[in-house]
Amino acid sequence: MVHADRARPLPALIAEASLALAVRSRPADGARLGGDLHDAVLTPAGPRLILGDVRGHGPAAAPLAAAVLAAFRDTATAEEDPVRLARTLDASIRPHLGEEDFVTLLLADLLPDEVRLVNCGHPPPLRIDHRLARLPPPLPSPPLGLDPEPQVQRAQVLPHQRLLLHTDGLTDARAADGTFFPLDRRALAALRAPTLDQALDRILGLLHRHTGDAVPADDLTLMLLQPAPDTPLPPP
């Protein structure tokens, strides 16, 4: 479930910022709740997205995911620096952590000329153009709960490009023979579909064909954005 600015739903917030965004979230094992979390708020500088993944999955991980979201909503619009925000979230959830708990986290500040990322142990985003380009952080940081030390990463996402934020439910999904879901040419073609919603539906279709009829073993969240929604992608 996505919540944005208290006064405005997420689609209106994103449209105001001249962005297009599509989201899909699927808890593991057919449950209603899981350990993935995502949200968006409008800061004075522009939209700020959060995507996180609690250790574990399904309903058992949901309370900690809710604690992270609550802390984000309390502080995300007032804290300008995303690194300080990540540290604030880490401190806020410490009372909720079990002995082996942690939360991978990705913050994305969407500015007119760039995206500023703060990554705490989370799978790196994928920039989509004529190829899929991973955007790993300059220096890896542990997740929340394990003394994160993140840095700001600046990435350019041009109007004709897209950016996919995802949890590891995508790349860790396995076929019956144990092979992981490949981010190959078929995935690129799916993510370059005419609309963002079509792109996510197609990548989920590929994922389903890869895993067969197996019940999803991990939570999955996908957030796909494009800075200028009316700009077509060039031929691959």
From TrEMBL:
Chain ranges passing through the membrane: none
Pfam families documented for this protein: SpoIIE (PF07228)
Keyword annotations: Hydrolase
GO molecular function, one term: phosphatase activity
Source species, domain of life: Bacteria
InterPro entries, per the entry: Bact_Sigma-Reg, PPM-type-like_dom_sf, PPM-type_phosphatase-like_dom
Hydrolase as UniProt keyword: yes
Residue span, PPM-type phosphatase domain: 18-227
Name under which the protein is recorded: PPM-type phosphatase domain-containing protein
Organism: Streptomyces poonensis
